[in-house]
Write a structure and sequence with these properties.
Layout: H1 4-11, E1 17-22, H2 24-29, E2 39-40, H3 43-49, E3 58-62, E4 74-79, H4 84-96, E5 101-104, H5 114-120, E6 128-131, H6 134-137, E7 143-152, E8 162-167, H7 175-180, E9 184-187, H8 199-210
Parallel strand pairs: 1-2, 4-5, 4-8, 5-6, 7-8, 7-9
Antiparallel strand pairs: 1-3
């Protein structure tokens, strides 16, 4: 994890942090007290380690573990979300709305891809992302599938829980998945001329309309 905010998040979590690395230049810019132990390395070495184009000169390395599952009324399912920024944003949105579980199809990007981790801004520490067969994961659940020809999401009356199913921006939700999983089709009404919505934005709108 890179950046002071993210490092603070993981340093104050129950994840096992192996080491925190920063540069002398970082310490010169940040005179506040850092409430964790760190090692100083030279800037050229840090830049080789970093996965960012513009490194923030502090990073943490931790052992991978899974967040504890907190059962609640809502979860999210993602079919073919292969953009790291989108997945990271969706994890952050889930954390904002108190959603603790996301189901991902096997053809989605890995949750521990560095770009995903960076985009979550620490929210991956609190949201369990499960790569799984979505047909099995969604069996016997109330599924709200985001489609172009569904019921206007503004007209959905007081749902008490379920799974928000989001598809790939270019291809939508896999047709075979829709055939095998009973679902309620919902749509975000389009007023202008944009061809589609980013998957992260669509997730945020659905969470606000159905949960908020």
């Amino acid at each position: 994890m890179e950046g002071l905010k993210s490092v603070n998040e993981i340093a104050n979590s129950n994840w096992q942090v192996e080491t925190i690395l920063c540069t002398k230049e970082f310490l010169a810019k940040h005179t506040e007290v850092l409430h964790f132990q760190y090692e100083i390395i030279e800037a050229p070495v840090f830049y080789k380690i970093s996965t960012l184009k513009t490194p923030q000169e502090i990073l943490a390395i931790a052992k991978i573990q899974q967040p504890q599952i907190v059962v609640n009324d809502w979860s999210i399912a993602l079919d073919g979300i292969n953009d790291p920024g989108n997945l990271g944003t969706i994890i952050r949105i889930a954390d904002w709305y108190g959603i603790s579980t996301i189901y991902c199809s096997p053809n989605s990007v890995d949750v521990f891809n560095p770009k995903v981790i960076q985009a979550t801004m620490g929210s991956f520490l609190r949201v369990l992302v499960i790569e799984t067969d979505l047909v099995e994961a969604l069996r016997n659940k109330t599924v709200f599938a985001t489609l172009l020809n569904g019921e206007n999401i503004r007209d959905v009356q007081n749902p008490t829980g379920g799974v928000i199913l989001i598809g790939n921006e270019a291809n939508g939700i896999n047709g075979n998945l829709l055939k095998q999983v009973p679902h309620k089709a919902i749509t975000i009404p389009r007023i202008g001329n944009a061809e589609s919505l980013n998957a992260g934005i669509a997730t945020a709108i659905c969470c606000e309309r159905l949960i908020g």
